[in-house]
């Protein structure tokens, strides 16, 4: 499960890191230390310009940095409420679930993150009661994580014209896998990150072989993540700021 993450890098930095050719800083989300479902998030994706057939030919494809709504809304959904339940897609079944299988072979993206939060049940010594302790899990070297994601288009039936920007909503989901390394000591699941050497293969819309794509989704090697307990203030989505990442004693 990945229900919250941190994304504070600006679009200029992300565009450079991911070799993006098109982006508009004014259109995107602000830095966030508490990204929550239904928030707008930065996503890196490749697609053909409007009016092309989108068949993935190299000459017509460009790499973009776009704001998407977190929580995938399938094209066939009756309304956007479905997205709140589809913030994650399990790597074991993403290629076959009706909500994700089309996006898996046609619309993949990367979701930049500084790290993510998970919660662990702990016992408070003074009271004997248990509570959920949040942990911030992040790369030891402080580098950006490129979370494997999918995106989808949803057509708002309340808008008459197809060429009206308000007619289309773009949403995304994070692919999760079995947790390893420090993350595995906190929670059994974690978001799956793509290494820089596979960015192009994952984003390429011409790649539509499900089995070949699944081979790119391998669990990360151990020894690369760090986990530290942080304040329960992160539990409230209204709290947002760098202080959320300040380490605290686990039983605080």
Short description, anyone?
The chain is mainly beta. It has helices at 11-17, 101-106, 181-184, 199-203, 210-214, and strands spanning 5-7, 22-23, 32-35, 40-47, 62-70, 88-90, 108-113, 115-123, 130-139, 145-155, 168-178, 189-191, 225-229.
Task: Break the fold down into its secondary structure elements and pairings.
Elements: E1 5-7, H1 11-17, E2 22-23, E3 32-35, E4 40-47, E5 62-70, E6 88-90, H2 101-106, E7 108-113, E8 115-123, E9 130-139, E10 145-155, E11 168-178, H3 181-184, E12 189-191, H4 199-203, H5 210-214, E13 225-229
Parallel strand pairs: 2-5, 5-11, 6-11
Antiparallel strand pairs: 1-3, 1-8, 4-5, 4-7, 7-10, 8-9, 9-13, 10-11, 11-12
Enzyme class: hydrolase
EC number: 3.4.-.-
Protein name: Abasic site processing protein
Which range does the strand content fall in? 25-35%
The overall pLDDT average reads 91
Would you identify the regions where 5 or more consecutive residues have pLDDT less than 50? 51-57
Strand order of the largest sheet: 3-1-8-9-13
Helix content: 10-25%
Radius of gyration over alpha carbons? 18 Å
Largest sheet: 5 strands, antiparallel
Supply the helix-strand structural class: mainly beta
Tell how many strands the DSSP assignment holds.
13
Give the H and E element order. Answer: EHEEEEEHEEEEEHEHHE
Shape: globular
How far is the first residue's CA from the last residue's CA? 24 Å
Count of helical regions: 5
Family: Belongs to the SOS response-associated peptidase family.
Keywords: Covalent protein-DNA linkage, DNA damage, DNA-binding, Hydrolase, Lyase, Protease
Pfam family, one: SRAP
Enzyme class: hydrolase
